[in-house]
Amino acid sequence: METFIWDIGYGSSCKNVKRVNKFEVNNYSDRYQDGINNYHRVWSVKITASSDIATDVLDFLKVSKGVTAFLWSPPTWVS
Q: What is the pTM assigned to this prediction?
């Protein structure tokens, strides 16, 4: 499995997201989790780098096509 090795900038942010489904019939409604792992983090990442490094990052992300998992450790400054 590939590893994302580049440092992200302090302008990056993280949002906690919970996927929930809602079922309604007549006057009854119920909410339930969507899947086993319905709690996850969504990252907006900022990288300030030279054009060579930026190209490397974009090439790395193109290979995953948004569906292939890769290893990454969140920065220590994010709580």
A: 0.58
Q: C-alpha angle with apex 43: 42 to 47, nearest 5 degrees?
A: 165
Q: Which residues contact 63 (CB under 8 A, 6 or more apart)?
A: 2
Distance CA(64)–CA(71), nearest Å, equals 11
At 19-45, the pLDDT tens digits run 899 999 999 999 998 888 888 888 888
- For the CA atoms of 60, 5, 14, 52, the dihedral, rounded to the nearest 10 degrees, stands at -60
As given in the structure block, the two tokens for residue 15 are: 């949002």
